[in-house]
Design goal:
Low-confidence stretches of chain A: none
Radius of gyration of chain B: 17 Å
CATH class of chain A: Alpha Beta
Mean pLDDT of chain B: 96
Largest sheet of chain B: 7 strands, mixed
Order of helices and strands of chain B: EEEEEHEEHEHEEHEHEEEE
Helix content of chain B: 10-25%
Strand content of chain B: 35-45%
Low-confidence stretches of chain B: none
Oligomer: heterodimer
Radius of gyration of chain A: 18 Å
Distance between the termini of chain A: 49 Å
Shape of chain A: globular
Order of helices and strands of chain A: EEEHEEEHEHEHEHEEEEEHEHEHH
Number of strands of chain B: 15
Number of domains of chain A: 1
Distance between the termini of chain B: 28 Å
Shape of chain B: globular
Mean pLDDT of chain A: 95
Number of helices of chain B: 5
Largest interface: A-B, 35 and 30 residues
Strand content of chain A: 15-25%
Amino acid sequence: MADLSVTLCGKTLKNPVIPASGTFGFGREFDEIYDISCLGGVATKGVALVPWEGNPVPRIAESRGVILNAVGLQNPGVEKFIAEDLPWLRQKTRVIANVVGRTIEDYEGVCARLDGLVDFLELNISCPNVKCGGMAFGIRPEAIEEVTARAKAKCPSTPLIVKLSPNVESIALNAQAAERGGADCLSLVNTFTGMAIDIERRRPVLANNTGGVSGAGIKPVAVRMVYEAAHAVSIPVIGIGGITCAEDAVEFMMAGAVAVQVGTQNFTDTRACPKIIAGLNEWCDAHGVARVAELTDTLKLNERRKTC
Amino acid sequence: MREITATVLENKRIADEIYSLTFAAEEEIAVRPGQFCMVGVGGFPLRRPIALCKAEGERFTVCYRVKGSGTRALAREYKAGEKLSVLLPLGNGFYVKEQETKVAVVGGGVGIFPLISAIRTYSKNKQVYAYMGFRNRAAVCMEYDMTRGEKLTLATDDGSVGFHGTSVQAFMQDVDMVCPDVVLACGPTPMLRALKTAMRDKDIPVYVSLEERMGCGIGACLVCVCEKTDGAHARVCKDGPVFEINDVVL
């Protein structure tokens, strides 16, 4: 029996497996299938200052090995979250409240309201499916630094995770920008902007035309980005992107992640997260790893021959 | 609601592009008419939401149209004996009050299948009048299960069987004579829209079962929303799929 606990910003998680924001609601529905207190934490559905209705339907499409979504951050707003979901979820496991906004003031407002009430705040500056806010804050390093700094000023007593977009020029520079802005931790990657076309109708499948690509097919790109980000900063990194099994989680941890988030696989297999937790324990036992935390950043790159 | 590993008993073509899949769970699971399940198809990240058509203890039948690569794989690869990951029962289902003794069901396309579960259930102690629409003769299926009620009217777009026209048109010809206490409907959106318009001045409650592309199927991901007349979004998978027709924008 390996020790699966990991420490993130001074807080202990019973294991490194966290369902990713947007795939898990606030946990209640999945708790009907299994007791979600087995999870390392839950990254909640994005929470805004006021309720958002989101995008028109269809909001989801499928392509080989991946899905595309354009939900548009529909959410009940921070007050309803605090009143109806947070007290219940807090009793279950670590709460990572995903924070969304259209303006910097929105992000500040949610962070201020939730400071001290949740275990972590995760600043979503990487959603590709909203016109204002979302990814607009998460592409240029200067914008990332500013929104991070202003959000962090409003949540002095709660560790702030900045969730990064992969739709960028340099993930390393963006990671460093978040760190400079005062981020306590990074999570990456959010979804890749994509499009799926219904060739019979000659129209995009998604009502929003484009959507965020996630699922097993994005994993190698995500692993590379986690590696680059983790080696560019000194704050911890949470790895996200196409994780379907314990071995995938191990890969992200070796690349530099302290913990992982599992998204799309929750749709494919409702029990994906508990299976990955059990699988991590087995993998560690089979490989003589006493503590799963030892896996983080143990990748050794191959020596490359100089060809030019 | 639970996630089960079911065994396929039968998966056969029953009409043009339509397959009937019967699977067995390890134990009895109670379901309501109009509820659905999410069927996992190997190699595809998303499960397919499909209405439960028949439920007999631990045996369930769903019918689906082969439309894309997922349903094609489901039809081709899941023979008797194969294992199938299924989430069920999902959604609210139909609810007919005790005093509502005359039930009309109006269906079209694959929308007839959730209504078959309603006919099977309510014909035990109520009068059920069924109006089922198909494209043509080749599309007609499950007639035996549809005849359990008081009366069955088939309608085809080309008139090759039964009433020449839509099931809504067939129903509207009968409605004042039958005087149903409640109407249950499922089918393509234009059909439901026509029903809503036609029933506007009748004082009869109409419940519709909606279809939408889904992510999780259990209410967590907010992918499959429909617009309510009050402007809010409701989850088709969890708050529905059955809604009072005047509560939703069609």
